[in-house]
Amino acid sequence: MTLKAYLHDHLAAIAWFFIGLALLCFGLWLDPGQRVRWDTLLYIAVLVTGLAAALLAWHYTRTKKWVKAFTDRQSAGAEALDWPLNPASSHEHAAISEAYNHVLREHRQAQSELIARQQDQKAFIDSWVHEIKVPLAAAGLLQDSLDGQAPEKPLDDLALQLDKINFYVEQVLYYSRLDSFSKDYLLREYDLKPLVDGVIVDQRNSFIDRRISFTLNGHSLTVVTDEKWLRFILGQLVSNALKYTAPGGKITATIQDAKTEATLTIADTGIGIPQDELHRVFEKGFTGTNGRNANQRSTGLGLYLADQLSQKLGHHLTIRSTVGKGTAVTIHFPHLSFYGESGATLTKPDLK
Ligand code: ATP
Ligand code: MG
């Protein structure tokens, strides 16, 4: 709190003080029983004003300290939630501190309850995913065992539906683990080509069902990433490309290396995304015109998760699309620059 702001706040009190002082001096001067000299009156006025100024200065330092306690907490942001106010000496400040600390305590309690409930839900989802995987795997084995004994078409359809269930179960799992990502990743160098191939093989039934061809362009390239999470991101991009491309279309994966980054682009020849929706596709739950019209189940979580996870891995996603021509989503893997290398953020110290 500045002195100017303080004086502004106490302008009325200061004005009343001077009016009171003037009235006092005037009263003394007018009183016929008192023979007060002008200079004595002036001396009293200066003395009282000096005392009042000292009192005001003391009060200003106290108020400044009190206000600082709040501004410090405001600039501390979320950390201020664990920062109660110290006990105050005056009754007025004590009442405010008590109310403030009470709100803090209530907030902390509500937060702890919320976290506990969220963890509970997460644990339930994790165990549910774990449980559902067993019958899913059994259904897969059952379908394999029927190979050659049952007609091919329903078996293929069954495999496709099982793939879809697996895909959505995975999505649920990754969604619930998004917050605990930091505990579950392993950054290493991985070759992009086998990774892409693995994802395509996982979704082979959809490729066959929708009669969509796949081409992989570019040389093999290693990037620093986490295999499991990147596979999931790629899975979401490929599944979108499959979902929003008409039968007979084409999906292309292109690996490229540039000076500052490596990129992997998944492009399709599908229906494309309207320009005014393009900036929203990474939002949680956004399904857009295609999600609603393409006669497909859409939750709008795929690209949101892919984008969030990419950022956690130090990559990022960009998207280009033309309605009627297709969509291309690119994963950017910035090259890591090491100490002393060109492009490094640290400059080498001069050791001469
Ligand atoms: P989910 O992935 O959860 O099953 P979804 O595919 O609808 O549902 P996202 O993957 O997040 O959700 O995609 C968001 C929206 O972006 C989609 O609903 C669709 O409108 C649009 N979209 C994404 N990829 C493509 C694509 N390759 N071609 C056309 N539209 C796309
Ligand atoms: Mg999707």
CATH superfamily of the domain at 186-343: Histidine kinase-like ATPase, C-terminal domain
Uncertain spans, ≥5 residues at pLDDT below 50? 342-352
> What is the number of beta strands?
7
SS-based structural class? alpha+beta
- In DSSP terms (H or I, runs of 4 or more residues), the helix count works out at 11
Q: CATH topology of the domain at 186-343, anyone?
A: Heat Shock Protein 90
Largest sheet report: 5 strands, mixed
CATH class of the domain at 186-343: Alpha Beta
The ligands bound in this entry are: adenosine-5'-triphosphate, magnesium ion
Strand numbers in spatial order across the main sheet? 2-4-5-7-6
Task: Please tell me the CATH architecture of the domain at 186-343 by its name.
Answer: 2-Layer Sandwich
Instruction: Compute the CA-based radius of gyration.
Output: 35 Å
Strand residues, percent:
5-15%
Order of helices and strands: HHHHHEHHEEHEEHHHEE
Question: Per the principal axes of the C-alpha atoms, what is the gross shape?
Answer: elongated
- Report how far the terminal alpha carbons are from each other: 49 Å
What is the mean predicted local confidence, pLDDT?
A: 90
Helix content: 55-70%
